[in-house]
Design goal:
Layout lengths: L5 E6 L5 H12 L2 E4 H14 L7 H8 L4 E6 L2 E6 L2 E2 L7 H11 L2 H14 L5 E5 L2 H5 L5 E6 L2 H14 L7 H17 L12 E4 L5 H15 L2
Parallel strand pairs: 1-6, 1-7, 2-6, 7-8
Antiparallel strand pairs: 3-4, 4-5
Helix pairs in contact: 1-9, 2-4, 2-5, 4-8, 7-8
The chain binds 2'-deoxycytidine-5'-monophosphate (DC).
């Protein structure tokens, strides 16, 4: 098999992109890359170091001091920021409420896209995000665009936060954050979230994880060269 096949998965926040991407990667023997984790880790760095996202020099300087790496453990994708494991911290609300602003920044996006394209050069990967099928890998042989009812999405993310011990964030907070991120993702100037013309729409509001995986695997087998 070729060594640079990409399955691109884009879609709204919290509609199960990473669940599908991980399951597909495992079935196909591909590497899973969570591009959202990269924007979240950069955001964490900006918060910790008080980087003003509106100051181009500060952003350049910060980007030059950020090293992101992925490693897999138990089929989960982990990310390190300058050597520190931050996979848990980047899912907390402080990062979730700031990430839209940071990920809308042109310099940040340019750097992340460059790094993402490098990862797809010599490996077979499943990458999820917002602009994977449109900007990062416009020639990917298989693209999905995922969506689900916003209420269902909020409930899923709320349960996830609760299972991780977050007792301060309400369901309403999560719903509002998702609505805000959907709006920011789809209306920003730099590569907004939009469906690539050749992306397969996957609405999983009424699908189980197993059903969506079956559907996606079918599509992949039909479309991979
Ligand atoms: O997938 P996620 O919710 O963890 O992504 C976090 C944020 O990063 C999301 O609000 C939008 C942004 N993002 C992006 O702009 N482009 C990507 N390829 C991935 C994520």
């Amino acid at each position: 098999m070729r060594k640079n096949l990409v399955v691109a998965i884009d879609g709204y926040s919290s509609c199960g992109k990473s669940t599908l991407a991980k399951a597909l990667a495992k079935k196909l023997g591909f590497i899973y890359i969570d591009s959202g984790a990269m924007y979240r880790a950069v955001t964490l760095y900006f918060i910790r170091n008080h980087v003003n996202v509106n100051d181009p020099e500060a952003v350049d300087y910060a980007l030059g001091h950020i090293e992101l790496n992925f490693h897999s453990q138990d089929y989960q994708s982990h990310i390190t920021l300058n050597g520190e494991e931050v996979s848990e911290e980047i899912r907390q609300m402080p990062v979730s409420t700031t990430v839209s602003e940071v990920s809308a920044n042109k310099k940040v996006r340019r750097e992340m896209v460059k790094q993402q394209q490098r990862m797809g050069k010599s490996k077979n990967i499943v990458m999820d995000g917002r602009d994977i099928g449109t900007t990062v890998f416009p020639d990917a042989p298989v693209k999905f665009f995922m969506t689900a009812d916003p209420k269902i999405r909020a409930e899923r993310r709320f349960k996830e936060l609760q299972s991780k011990g977050d007792t301060t964030t309400s369901l309403e907070d999560v719903f509002e954050n998702l609505a805000h991120r959907d709006y920011a993702d789809t209306t920003r100037k730099e590569s907004p979230l939009t469906r690539a013309d050749d992306a397969i729409i996957l609405d999983n509001t009424d699908l189980t994880e197993a059903e969506q995986l079956d559907f996606a695997l079918d599509m992949v087998h039909q479309q991979l060269p």
